[in-house]
Amino acid sequence: NNIAFLEENLKNLNNFDWEVLLDQSLRHKIFPIIFKYTNTFIPDKLKSKYLPLYFEMIARRREMAQDCINICNTAMANGVQVIPTKGFVLSKLIYDNPYTRSYNDIDILVKETDIEKVDSILQSHNYYSRVFGSSFKVTPKPIFFYPESHDIHYNKKLPDGEVGCRLELKRYMWSFSNVADFFKNTQTIKIDNSDVEVLNINYSFLLLCSYAYNYTELPYGVISKNCLRDYMDLLMFFNKYNSLIEWNELAKLSNKYEILHKIYCVMNYLNALYGDVVDIDVIQLFRPHLASYEINAYENGNFLQWKTDIKTRLFDDEQRLLEY
Predict the structure, then answer these.
(1) For residue 113, what is the DSSP state?
(2) Residue 30 contacts residue 232 (beta carbons within 8 Å)
(3) How far is CA 161 from the centre of its chain?
(4) pTM of this prediction?
(5) What's the CA gap between 104 and 60, in Å, rounded?
(6) Which runs of E-coded beta strand occur in the chain?
(7) What is the spatial distance between Cα 96 and Cα 27, in angstroms, rounded to a whole number?
(8) Residues 73-109: pLDDT tens digits?
(9) What's the rounded Cα separation, in Å, for the pair 35 and 41?
(10) Crossing angle for the helix pair 18-27 and 44-77, nearest 10 degrees?
């Protein structure tokens, strides 16, 4: 948050390894943010690596965001409510720029009753349903990505590859069972001169915490999705919206959706990474023993009983995987 402090320290760095910074920022999905604040200090000999990569990422994300906005506008014109999540929406909410946050596809929350309508809308924008293990095999009708999943994956073919779009249905966010609530708790924000309906502040925070937990604690995340981006997102979101979040209401919602222990765990991780960001009185609202549901986790909310701390697990892949 202290840009002047960052710039002063970058000026005084000797023998700084800019290639390691590039590799690590890509690994942790924070390259656009790192580039934004360090680009004036990058040595000339390495700008040929940084600059093309940055502009390529921004161009691809701009295209994805515009695709999603067009899909949402078509849905609205046809009386279908859809809610884009993650990606450029979180980027706009957190960083005031729809292209700063790293993302690789489009995520849209839809009602199960609207699947066929949304499928037709996506096809009109050249997105076609695909199945697990198939990069671009068009299916005759929308089907779940794999048998027990809760989402339908689509792809749009591009001259230099493809871009994905994922429809989230019931069992949204893995443990949320009351998906109808999400369609009632929205706000409208302006993105590239278009009005876009997105989740409100409370529900956006639930989404951020759930993804951070799943990617830090659950097997799929531990193996392949563990990265600093999720906690940097939370830090910036918390600093920006702390005064607007209704913490008591959020604790009730977390209990209702059976993620109270997840929020507790993630908030403690956030403090471990960045200092006392979250007030202890706020964290106490989410203590696992207050849950009215059966928790499949340890007393601190962890799904796994780690010996190493969160910092080590984020930055030492070998150690994390060995312990897992």
Answers:
(1) G
(2) yes
(3) 22
(4) 0.89
(5) 9
(6) 83-85, 105-109, 128-130, 151-158, 161-168, 186-191, 194-199
(7) 23
(8) 999 999 999 999 989 999 999 999 999 998 888 899 9
(9) 10
(10) 20
